[in-house]
Design the sequence.
């Protein structure tokens, strides 16, 4: 200020300069999202962090989510960036959790140090518990791309948001839809075996499903947990399942481990009336159909998905398949939708201020969405109130929504044919 | 618990133990001869799996005949890695050796990630879903194949070490490096061969695992920790020890899977700790 004063020739000019300074600072205090009023220096680049398991356990699904995020960001940049910020482009910085909470923590800290104004991640619930905590501490908005555990949003955090359904929603939907299938088939198939991985995801999913199963009158005849990252063989566990002779096998887990289970069931000739995933990475993945077409047929999964009735979802699916030359999956759809939520918030915030972005996220009301549900709106914990999981079944090699009615494209097949018939 | 479940757990555990043994044999050979702990061992298994995967996917070569290509190819790869990297750190402190082999492992894993992406891939062979019912127990054909291959390769390795001049030279170099040099053994060549054979063994383990397991860049880690435990349990440098250790760990793990919760590996580590307390040199290791 003293230097400015010295350079000023007259008192009149001094007063003029003082007034204009006042005007600038008044503009900076203008309410968020005031149209056409860019704040502070012109923003040319907005740093957004995308943190997922790109190597190690979970890398397959983690990359799928990250590609969905990337596609939406690329689209936004190609369409002229964030308009309320003068067309500023998003600089997406990608980081790798390796599927480990401690790596997730240090990488989140790094992204924030590098100036990211918002983050997306982190696939594994156990990792997301930690990354959201770091973001909360630093006051950086964190849009959960994929991570199901209810607990993530039950800690009173202000900066975490999740558009996808949580574990309880998916557990309830799956069990309710399953009960309808069982009732329609005569109601005698009530013996359930539950298999789930043993980290945060498996714990919360199984807790949610167990209470729903009890309420729906199912009988839990076997409960098996396993370490998805280290499993090399499940022969003994599968023979426990076989000995329990369940009508229905419920499975929560990731891609390669669930595939090992399904193949071991085949080897041991385990032939239940249905194999049903709860937020399972394999049982609704088109890649599974490609790898094991006969084993994949009739598999059921209760999971997040895209809205089969949405035109935009269809366009995104095509764009994704063209961009990456691989089938569009629910993982990529969640990544895409989460990035969409964040871009909408950035537009409305009209600022790179983290608290303004948080404010905008909290007021989200998105209608043009690719996931099921009428709108995306967050409750006070940051959970999307309208998140809607679907029940999916692989029918003639295609992952097909079969419930709820509004989104169903076909009737579910239950009970499924015996194993020998399926392998023929 | 019925006897059928128990028998199935024992059978499944022993079959898996064969694979553990095969992975451990190579690790043990490299340690026994060169006194180098090879952290890249699991990574070579992963590369062996990818080699067989691509031979199958591109040329339709079944994993079993592909051993004839993968084995010799990885013998050369192992020898090259020994010459280029490992031979330079033989006299370095152990933690330096460890870091270097870990570096090789990280480099190769990331190379695989860049080349093949993180997708777990698996193959479908004609015999992939064959299984033999023995009483009430089902024996999966590809797992039995891997087990028998492991036994056969262990047999060949024992014969090589016991009955051939090369084997004698290896044992001599392992026991007394200077002495071996004095009697005219080309220890450098022996080291390269030991590393090459160890690498070939684990690559072949990768080939025979492929019909029933997926391959991804991180898959080696899944087997490596167990291989370390196997080697220490059986006795560092003891080849029958690695074989018996592998089978024992498979068996204990199979039985552990009958415990509630995900306690599959608890008895393995329990056995490991008890062994370290009561017989620190390992089951068949010699006290030095």
Sequence:
């Amino acid at each position: 200020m003293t230097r400015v004063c010295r350079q000023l020739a007259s008192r009149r000019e001094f007063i003029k300069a003082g007034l204009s300074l006042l005007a600038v600072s008044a503009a900076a205090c203008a309410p968020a999202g005031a149209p056409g009023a860019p704040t502070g220096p012109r923003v040319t680049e907005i740093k957004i962090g995308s943190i997922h398991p790109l190597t190690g356990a979970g890398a397959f699904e983690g990359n799928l989510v990250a590609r969905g995020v990337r596609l939406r960001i690329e689209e936004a940049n190609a369409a002229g960036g964030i308009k309320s910020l003068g067309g500023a482009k998003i600089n997406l910085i990608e980081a790798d959790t390796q599927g480990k909470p401690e790596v997730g923590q240090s990488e989140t800290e790094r992204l924030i140090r590098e100036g990211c104004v918002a983050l997306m991640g982190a696939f594994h619930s156990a990792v997301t518990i930690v990354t959201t905590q770091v973001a909360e501490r630093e006051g950086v908005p964190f849009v959960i791309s994929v991570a199901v555990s209810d607990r993530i949003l039950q800690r009173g955090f202000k900066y975490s948001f999740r558009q996808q359904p949580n574990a309880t929603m998916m557990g309830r939907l799956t069990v309710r839809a399953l009960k309808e299938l069982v009732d329609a088939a005569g109601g005698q198939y009530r013996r359930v075996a539950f298999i789930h991985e043993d980290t945060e995801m498996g714990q919360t999913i199984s807790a949610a499903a167990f209470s729903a199963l009890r309420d729906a009158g199912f009988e839990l005849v076997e409960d098996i947990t396993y370490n998805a990252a280290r499993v090399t063989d499940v022969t003994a566990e599968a023979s426990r399942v076989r000995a329990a002779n369940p009508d229905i096998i419920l499975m929560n887990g990731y891609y390669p481990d669930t595939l090992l289970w399904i193949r071991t069931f085949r080897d041991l000739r385990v032939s239940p009336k249905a194999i049903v995933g709860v937020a399972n990475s394999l049982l609704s993945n088109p890649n599974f159909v490609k790898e094991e077409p006969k084993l994949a047929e009739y598999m059921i999964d209760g999971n997040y998905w895209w809205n089969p009735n949405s035109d935009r979802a269809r366009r995104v699916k095509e764009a994704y398949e063209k961009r990456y030359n691989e089938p569009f999956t629910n993982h990529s759809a969640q990544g895409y939708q989460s990035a969409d939520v964040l871009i909408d918030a950035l537009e409305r915030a009209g600022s790179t201020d983290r608290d303004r972005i948080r404010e905008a996220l909290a007021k989200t009301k998105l209608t043009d969405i690719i996931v099921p549900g009428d709108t995306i709106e967050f409750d006070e914990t940051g959970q999307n109130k309208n998140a809607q999981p679907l029940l999916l079944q692989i029918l003639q090699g295609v992952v097909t929504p079969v419930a709820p009615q509004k989104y169903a494209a076909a009737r579910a097949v239950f009970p499924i044919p015996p194993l020998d018939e399926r392998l023929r | 618990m019925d006897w059928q479940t128990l028998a199935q757990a024992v059978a499944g555990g022993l079959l898996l133990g064969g694979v553990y043994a095969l992975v451990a044999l190579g690790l043990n050979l490299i340690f026994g001869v060169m006194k180098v702990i090879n952290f890249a061992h699991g990574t070579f298994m992963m590369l062996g799996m990818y080699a067989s995967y691509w031979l199958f996917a591109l040329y339709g070569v079944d994993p079993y005949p592909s051993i004839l290509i993968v084995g010799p190819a990885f013998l050369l790869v192992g020898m090259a890695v020994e010459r280029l990297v490992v031979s330079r750190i033989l006299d370095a402190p152990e933690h330096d050796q460890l870091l270097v082999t870990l570096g090789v492992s990280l480099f190769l894993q990331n190379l695989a990630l860049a080349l093949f992406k993180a997708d777990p891939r698996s193959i479908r062979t004609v015999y992939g879903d064959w299984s033999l019912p023995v009483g009430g127990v089902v024996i999966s054909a590809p797992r039995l194949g891997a087990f028998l291959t492991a036994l056969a390769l262990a047999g060949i390795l024992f014969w090589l070490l016991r009955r051939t001049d090369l084997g004698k030279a290896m044992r001599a170099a392992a026991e007394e490096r200077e002495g071996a040099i004095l009697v005219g053994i080309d220890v450098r060549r022996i080291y390269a061969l030991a590393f090459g054979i160890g690498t070939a063994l684990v690559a072949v383990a990768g080939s025979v695992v492929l019909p029933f397991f997926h391959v991804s860049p991180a898959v080696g880690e899944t087997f490596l920790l167990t291989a370390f435990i196997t080697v220490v349990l059986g006795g560092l440098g003891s080849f029958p020890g690695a074989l018996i250790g592998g089978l024992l760990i498979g068996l204990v793990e199979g039985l552990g899977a009958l415990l509630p919760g995900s306690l599959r590996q608890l008895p393995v580590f329990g056995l490991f700790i008890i062994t370290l307390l009561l017989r620190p040199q390992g089951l068949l290791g010699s006290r030095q």
The first helix of chain A runs from residue 2 to 7.
